[in-house]
Amino acid sequence: MADQRITEISDLLEIPLYDRREALQELVTHELKSALLMEDDEYLAPDSVFFELGLTSLQLSEIKYTLDKALGCELEVAQLFNRPTVEQLVSYLSEHVIAEAFADPDADLRR
């Protein structure tokens, strides 16, 4: 997955459904690392709390803007405060904000 970083929602939709969550997590992690001036090869635990990492509200606003642009959505910055880990934010994004990108296209056929 590392060689297939998403930069916009169309990139995510081109990835097989079973790899999309990982790709979304990589995008969110990349944006956080960038804000924290971390190298790509440095580890950032998915359950690390944003504010414990030293992120400021201004940095979260910038991350929100970048995610809005990449995912073609309008996040509220409060969602980043309410879901203060990569794990929680990715779950929220995949289940509520861009849920259609994670819908199983064959779900109706199996009923």
Automatic annotation (TrEMBL):
Residues 22-97 form the Carrier domain. PROSITE patterns: CARRIER (PS50075). Keywords: Phosphopantetheine, Phosphoprotein. It comes from the Bacteria. GO terms for biological process: antibiotic biosynthetic process. Pfam families: PP-binding. The keyword Phosphoprotein applies. GO terms for molecular function: phosphopantetheine binding. SMART domains: PKS_PP. This is Carrier domain-containing protein. It comes from Streptomyces malaysiense.
